[in-house]
Amino acid sequence: MSKHGRVLVAMSGGVDSSVAAMLLHEEGYEVVGITMKTWDYATSGGTKKETGCCSLDSINDARALAVRFGFPHFILDIRSEFGESIIDNFVEEYLAGRTPNPCVLCNTHIKWEALLKRADKLDCEFIATGHYARQREENGRYVISRGLDLNKDQSYVLWGLKQDFLARTRFPLGGFRKQEIRKMAADADFMDLANKSESYEICFVPDNDYRSFLKRRVDGLEERVNGGDFVLADGTVIGKHQGYPFYTIGQRKGLDIALGKPMFVLEIRPETNTVVLGEKEELVRHTMKVRGVNLVKYAAIPDDMQALTKIRYKHDGTQSILNHLPDGDMQVEFIEPVSGIAPGQSAVFYEGEDLIGGGFIKREPAI
């Protein structure tokens, strides 16, 4: 009988999830490894060499570590669920004039559900991942807080997890810095893992060219959307664009329009295939609405609650005031205005180091 119980560890073949499995094994957990195959590189149509969590090399790396430490390893094929829930949503969001957040959806609706379902079949009490985040139980709630290494903190993508998911989740890396994790891999004579590069692209868009991905996924997309109007906030037409799904809020480069001053994308209007441009100061907003809110630290929060709000993963966060709206959305009022709010991205709320919760930024007229 193991010291702490039986845990199913999501192993991508990278250094983080591999060291997470090593740490749990050393702590006395009975570890079972699992690698989830979420997509086929051959179907993505990209030009980049196959890398990342779904490549054969990564699967083999995960299995080799399991063999080395003497615990079982399985491969879980979730390509069908992933395609229906994540890739289809990714396309739909761009066609709706929003910027999707596929990693959040994948964690919430695919990976955790798939892991827990398989954990039950394998008699595992817990699941674990290589995310840089910390967790504790407090006042009957499971609370997520930032990872010790703030440069690697991944609490932002975990806001959608429900309490029953968190009750069975372990984050072994939350109290470590990235360089410590690499050293652990090196000390265990896994030099290939210790030196393995990291990927920051969306897993199913390995060449990081989402525009080409959309064109391959949607038949006739270019013909349908090419030649729409670039307009100013007052409606003045100032040029033609290549199609509204191929632009994002705050974009400056690649507009192919010369007005004698830098111009930025302020708003995307799919109904009319129109992209609104303006100067940098026109990107500034004082409020936004957030839909689909999930609370983590508290079961409920009061109106006028102050929180640090992040509007994208690499955003430092801005102090704000949170208020409930009658339709269930959250109104966020920024104490200091912010720039580049992109509908579809996650808005994540913090109280100190703790994750209050989050939701998706709603699309509203910019002007």
Helicity range: 25-40%
**CATH class bucket of the largest domain:** Alpha Beta
How many domains, as an integer?
Answer: 3
CATH topology of the largest domain: Rossmann fold
Low-confidence segments:
46-51
Question: Would you write up a description of this structure?
Answer:
By secondary structure, this protein is α/β, with parallel strands linked by helices. The chain has three domains: 6-194, Rossmann fold (3-Layer(aba) Sandwich), CATH 3.40.50.620; 223-278, Adenine nucleotide alpha hydrolases-like domains (SH3 type barrels), CATH 2.30.30; 283-361, Elongation Factor Tu (Ef-tu), domain 3 (Beta Barrel). It is built from ten helices and 17 strands. The protein has helices at residues 15-27, 41-44, 56-69, 79-95, 102-121, 163-166, 178-187, 191-194, 210-217, 221-225, and strands spanning 6-10, 30-37, 73-77, 126-128, 133-138, 141-146, 169-170, 229-231, 237-240, 264-269, 274-278, 284-295, 305-310, 318-324, 330-339, 346-351, 354-361. The strands form four sheets. Strands 12-15-14-13-16-17 form a six-stranded antiparallel barrel. Strands 3-2-1-4-7 form a five-stranded parallel beta sheet, sandwiched between helices. Residues 46-51 have low confidence and may be disordered.
What's the layout of helices and strands?
Elements: E1 6-10, H1 15-27, E2 30-37, H2 41-44, H3 56-69, E3 73-77, H4 79-95, H5 102-121, E4 126-128, E5 133-138, E6 141-146, H6 163-166, E7 169-170, H7 178-187, H8 191-194, H9 210-217, H10 221-225, E8 229-231, E9 237-240, E10 264-269, E11 274-278, E12 284-295, E13 305-310, E14 318-324, E15 330-339, E16 346-351, E17 354-361
Helix pairs in contact: 1-3, 1-7, 4-5
